[in-house]
Every structure is written in structure tokens, then in C-alpha cells.
Design goal:
The structure holds two protein chains of two kinds.
Chain A (H helix, E strand, L loop, with lengths): L7 E9 L2 E8 L8 E9 L2 E9 L7 E5 L6 E3 L4 E8 L7 E5 L5 E5 L4 E6 L11
Antiparallel strand pairs in A: 1-2, 3-4, 5-7, 7-10, 9-10
Chain B lengths: L1 E5 L4 E12 L4 E7 L1
Antiparallel strand pairs in B: 1-2, 2-3
The chains are: A mainly beta, B mainly beta.
Chain lengths: 130, 34
């Protein structure tokens, strides 16, 4: 991983000549990923070096389903396809799964955040399935 | 059914309500997303 300069507020509490407490807080937004930052400071005894790990908070992906106008219903023997699109603000590729997948339907995950739900209700026998 | 997009730690989901109606010969599947 590369390093990145991030402004830090540093509060030092000297408890004894050999014990200090440091409170550090990053002051600017950093992008996804973790960086290791070299930080140096000085006290009366000389200089010391700290390594501070700044972890970026994870954000949830956003999923949308595209239902073409007029494609909300399909008769037995028909065919429906709904597009799925998921984006992660952190830049990762979300995976797509379906829970409670209806018989004769399949979810295809394209592996790039997009996918498709396919319905082929050829032999559905139960009514009002959720 | 519920479609879930996950980054491994956090997820978003869309619930699809499915119903089948019509005669025994020609049932119709209806899907609504919410």
C-alpha cells in the first residue's frame, strides 16, 4: 500500500518522562483503502516516530432493479428478464444473490455489479408466492 | 424473493413480491419491486 499525507490533530499528554498518551484524528477525507502514515514529533528528549493506520469506513453498496414498462406480468410459458445493477461507493464489485428464488427463475451475476433475473413461469403451481 | 447486493460486509436489498393469478390453463406471474 502507498502512503498518503493526511493532516492530523495531535494531542500529547505527558504522564511521565517515559509515558505519553497520543490522540490523533485525521482531518481530511481519504479515499477507500488503508494507508500507513509516517508521523514524527519531538519532545524534550528528542524525536520519535509513529506509524498511524487510517482506516476508511466501509459504505454499503446500492442495488437497483430495472423493470421494463409493461413487463411486470408474464403468462405461463412466457419469459421475463429484469436487469440488476449494484454500485459500491467504495469501488468494490458487489456480488448479487437471491433469497427465496422462485421456481423456474434464476439470477445471473455477471461479476461486474450487474446481473439479470430471469423468469420462465412454465410450470408454477402455487398461487400468491412471495 | 429478495435480491441482495453485498460487498462482503454491507449489503443493499430489493424485495420482489411475486404473485401468480389466472386460470389453471394460463396463470400470470406478476412482479413488483419495493
Amino acid at each position: 500500500m502507498g502512503s498518503r499525507r493526511v493532516a492530523l490533530i495531535c494531542t500529547v499528554l505527558v504522564i511521565s518522562p517515559v509515558l505519553m498518551l497520543w490522540a490523533l484524528s485525521p482531518q481530511e477525507q481519504v479515499s477507500a483503502g488503508d494507508d500507513w502514515l509516517p508521523v514524527s514529533s519531538a519532545n524534550s528528549a528528542g524525536s520519535i516516530a509513529l506509524t498511524v493506520r487510517v482506516a476508511v469506513a466501509n459504505r454499503a453498496p446500492v442495488l437497483s432493479v430495472s423493470i421494463p414498462l409493461g413487463a411486470e406480468s408474464v403468462p405461463e410459458g412466457g419469459h421475463l428478464e429484469y436487469g440488476l445493477a449494484a454500485e459500491d461507493p467504495d469501488g468494490t464489485v458487489p456480488s448479487l444473490i437471491a433469497v427465496g428464488l422462485l421456481k423456474n427463475s434464476v439470477l445471473v451475476d455477471s461479476g461486474n455489479g450487474n446481473g439479470v433475473l430471469v423468469f420462465n413461469p412454465a410450470s408454477i403451481k402455487r398461487a400468491n408466492t412471495r | 424473493m429478495t435480491v441482495i447486493a453485498s460487498d462482503g460486509m454491507l449489503a443493499d436489498s430489493v424485495h420482489l413480491s411475486l404473485s401468480v393469478s389466472g386460470t389453471n390453463r394460463r396463470p400470470v406471474l406478476t412482479v413488483a419491486a419495493n
